User: Which sequence fits this backbone?
């Protein structure tokens, strides 16, 4: 089994690590675009061209499925990626987990990039799936960049700024950018002091999207299997190693097979 994942940068680590835990035997292909990142400020047309190039590089390795481990690319490029690669290679997009977060009808906050916050795409998800829930959209300027650089000081600063915009009584928090899942504990720590013993339920996309990829190819989780899967890293189409910033995160350490710090 071979699963490819794509993103502009290291946001794909969370979904890749989830896939490694679910299927230790799966060969993983991580295709990113450091030459063209960040994708967020690009026009939809430009972003789609960058995403297609990254996907083609991954497709050349013959994966059984491709996970678009990037919310922005899923918004703008998913139709083009599916038109080019399917049905030969199933393409699985990443959608913020608004529906499960709102299921209990509590108070939900969605942390997302400034470009996504308030966008027709996100507002449409809220309209369609957040019935009965009180939803607050929280823009997180600079957080994805700080995570990408593994800049702990910048992560702490941007997380604190987003936490200050987050209502103290939320019941659920949606991490609406794949990068944010890499610093979920920092986010949890920033919110917890205001809430005492009660903390919100976090909703990420890494494990759900990995499970969906397995379903699409007719496979199932088998986490007990021996770890025999390989790791291929593509950097703007070139074979490479995991970038140094990846090792700042437990997910990157897991994929590299080194003891977690």
Assistant:
């Amino acid at each position: 089994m071979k699963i490819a994942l794509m993103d502009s940068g290291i946001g794909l680590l969370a979904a890749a690590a989830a896939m490694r835990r679910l299927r230790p035997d799966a060969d993983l292909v991580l295709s990113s675009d450091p030459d063209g990142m960040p994708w967020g400020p690009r026009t939809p047309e430009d972003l789609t061209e960058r995403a297609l190039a990254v996907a083609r590089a991954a497709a050349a390795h013959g994966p059984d499925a491709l996970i678009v481990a990037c919310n922005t690319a899923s918004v703008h490029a998913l139709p083009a990626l599916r038109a080019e690669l399917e049905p030969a290679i199933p393409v699985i997009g990443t959608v913020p987990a608004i529906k499960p977060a709102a299921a209990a009808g509590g108070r939900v906050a969605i942390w997302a990039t400034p470009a996504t916050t308030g966008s027709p795409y996100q507002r449409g998800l809220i309209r369609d799936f957040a019935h009965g829930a009180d939803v607050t959209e929280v823009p997180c300027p600079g957080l994805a960049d700080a995570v990408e650089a593994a800049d702990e000081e910048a992560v702490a600063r941007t997380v604190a700024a987003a936490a200050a915009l987050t209502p103290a009584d939320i019941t659920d928090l949606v991490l609406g950018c794949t990068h944010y899942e890499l610093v979920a504990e920092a986010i949890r720590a920033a919110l917890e002091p205001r809430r005492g013993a009660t903390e919100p339920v976090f909703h990420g996309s890494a494990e759900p999207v990995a499970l969906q990829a397995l379903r699409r190819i007719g496979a199932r989780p088998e986490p007990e299997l021996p770890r025999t899967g390989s790791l291929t890293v593509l950097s703007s189409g070139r074979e490479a190693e995991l970038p140094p910033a990846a090792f700042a995160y437990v997910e990157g350490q897991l994929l590299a097979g080194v003891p977690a710090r």
Q: What stands out?
A: The first strand starts at residue 2 and ends at 6. The chain has two domains: 2-94+206-256, 98-203.
